[in-house]
Specification:
Strand content: 5-15%
Strand order of the largest sheet: 1-2-5-3-4
Radius of gyration: 67 Å
Number of strands: 5
CATH class: Alpha Beta
Order of helices and strands: HHEEHHEHHEHE
CATH architecture: 2-Layer Sandwich
CATH superfamily: OmpA-like domain
Structural class: alpha+beta
């Protein structure tokens, strides 16, 4: 019995020792695990904080990025506005420059036009001076060569501005009712031709004039009216002057009949003055 008791006691002791040992081992493990869990919890908490910090940092960076984008967008808009404003200013300057160029061209064309007009006016003035000088020389030559006829009252020379007129009474050139130049008339026209044949700047208009007495029945068969008589006489004078080397291109024959009198037709003297050949020099 004592043996059993001893055996039971030993078994109990072994069992208690085992349980005690096991208990000690489990507690150590538990503490180790607990300690490990605490470390893990601390690490987890640290990681959570780090994650939260990173999230916040990410959020801040995102905000900064958005702000940067907004600022960049604002800058782009401002830059676009500035570029557009500069483009508008450049366009305006180009328009002004084009207008300035057009105005400059207009003024240049106007200047050239004025210079051309001035040059043309100077040429015209010079031509008029030459014409006037030629007419003056012709007048002086005519006066010198026809002085006798002038003194006799058969020739009258007058000048008004650039118009030189030589009036020759018909009786010096033609017989009554005739259109043929007389010998005396040819002598007078010969003197006239010497003064006119070198003219280059003037036209020579030969006008035939009559009085207002109607053509008689005999002459009416050849000259139905004073128109035909005055024209025929003017034509004969032109033909003679051209034969005396007066340039025919400068000559013109015109019949004026009785419609431009220089005196009254109420007297024989007046009608005699109206029956005339008038040689008129005018500039070309």
């Amino acid at each position: 019995m004592n043996q059993k008791i001893v055996t039971k006691s030993i078994a109990f002791i072994f069992l208690f020792s085992f349980i005690f040992i096991q208990g000690c081992v489990g507690k150590s493990r538990y503490r180790a695990e607990l300690s490990k869990n605490e470390v893990l919890a601390a690490q987890l908490k640290s990681q959570t904080k780090e994650k939260a910090r990173l999230e916040q940092e990410k959020h801040d960076i995102k905000k900064q990025l958005e702000a940067s984008h907004q600022q960049a967008g604002f800058r782009e808009k401002e830059q676009a506005k500035l570029i557009n404003a500069q483009a508008d200013q450049i366009s305006l300057l180009e328009v002004r420059e084009n207008k300035h160029a057009q105005e400059k061209k207009r003024l240049e064309d106007k200047r050239k036009s004025l210079e051309g007009m001035l040059s043309e006016a100077e040429k015209v003035a010079e031509e008029k001076v030459r014409n006037a000088q030629e007419a003056v020389r012709a007048r002086e030559s005519l006066i010198n060569s026809l002085q006798t006829e002038i003194d006799q009252g058969n020739v009258k020379i007058s000048q008004m501005n650039d118009r030189l007129s030589v009036q020759i009474v018909s009786k010096v050139l033609f017989s009554s009712g005739s259109d043929q130049v007389t010998g005396e008339g040819k002598g007078v026209l010969k003197k006239v031709s010497l003064s006119l044949k070198n003219l280059t700047k003037n036209r020579i208009r030969v006008e035939g004039h009559t009085d207002n007495v109607p053509i008689g029945p005999v002459l009416a068969r050849k000259f139905p009216s004073n128109w035909e008589l005055s024209t025929a006489r003017a034509t004969q004078v032109v033909r003679y002057l051209s034969q005396e080397e007066v340039n025919p291109k400068n000559l013109l024959a015109v019949g004026m009949a009785e419609y431009t009198p220089i005196a009254s037709n109420d007297s024989p003297e007046g009608r005699q003055k109206n029956r005339r050949i008038e040689i008129v020099l005018t500039p070309k």
